[in-house]
Amino acid sequence: QDNGFEQFIINYCNEKLQQIFILMTLKEEQEEYVREGIQWTPVEFFDNSIICNLIENSKCGILAMLDEECLRPGVVNEDTFLTKLNQLFATHKHYESKETQNARRVMDASLLPQCFRIHHYAGKVTYNVTGFIEKNNDLLFRDLSQAMWASRHTLLRSLFPEGDPQKVSLKLPPTAGFQFKASVATLMKNLYSKNPNYIRCIKPNETKTAMLFTPELVLAQIRYLGLMENVRTAGAFGGPAARGLPGSDGPHSPPRCREGAEVLLADLAFPREELAFGHTKIFIRSPRTLFDLEKRRQERVGQLATLIQKTFRGWRCRTQY
Predict the structure, then answer these.
(1) Fewest C-beta atoms under 10 Å: which of 70, 135, 229, 294?
(2) Banded model confidence at residue 200, pLDDT cuts 50, 70, 90
(3) Whole-number Å distance between alpha carbons of 91 and 85
């Protein structure tokens, strides 16, 4: 109910993870349909880049404004920080505070004067700015770092490399928000270089009771996780079920490979709407069709293995005879 600095940076990380989920599933899958020349109906989805930018923009994001307040000379407190946010984001669709509500003549007793609210992809979250500056300025005095580095204990010494007198920097140590943002950026770079698989966990009820599903709670999570859009996009012609045409390595596959694949699939008599031929891939709509194809392939591999064994054994017996 009372969210502070810690929850704010955790939710920032959640926004970045949602952003990568959108880019690597919904957006890329739709772009693949276009590249492959597949006829389909575009699915609208919410791109949360606007929220990520609100928090992390290096010039005027919330984290940048927090750092600016922490480093500003003179009297610094959360009131000046909140005032600055209210001025910067007075018209932002995903930010609100008591001041911005008053400007729009909105009556809302749930939003206190020392709070601001962000409309995250998963819903609205209210943050109390009390303690933001102190927690962001989580600084360790230089002499303490040097004392730890001088320790004879190997582990302690390794934990405080900044205490090395040869590496002393006159710059102010980075703030907690800056360090967290850099850590998130490293995580994103790592994830973008992978081919991730996603497991979405749904909280079935509020009481942690087995075999009990609260429909409203489950539906709310499905909506804000973007699963409805994901299912609709995959259902257009499922990306995970796409299969490359044999021998296709250019923008268009060799005609004979395509003709062979079309003849093969026509012989299996799948409904017309289950399959679509792209330039280099076959798109399969439902998992059931894909599983059926895999089952038939496994059965056929077994039959062919038996045929090869039978032919070889016959040849060997005739030769020996």
Answers:
(1) 294
(2) confident
(3) 11
Listing from the earlier edge strand, what are the strands of the sheet with 123-128? 95-97, 115-120, 123-128
CATH class of this structure's domain 5-136: mainly alpha
Any residues with CB less than 8 A from the CB of 209 and at least 6 apart, and which? Answer: none
Residue 239's pLDDT band, with cuts at 50, 70 and 90, is very low
Q: Which residues contact 134 (CB under 8 A, 6 or more apart)?
A: none
- Least-confidence region, from 53-57, 169-173, 283-287: 169-173
Helices (H), 193-277: 215-224, 227-236, 255-267
Using an 8 Å Cβ cutoff, are 57 and 12 in contact? no
What gap in Å lies between CA 262 and CA 26, rounded to an integer?
28
The structural domains of the chain, with segments of one domain joined by +, span 5-136, 202-237, 257-320
CA separation for the pair 228, 1 (Å, rounded): 28
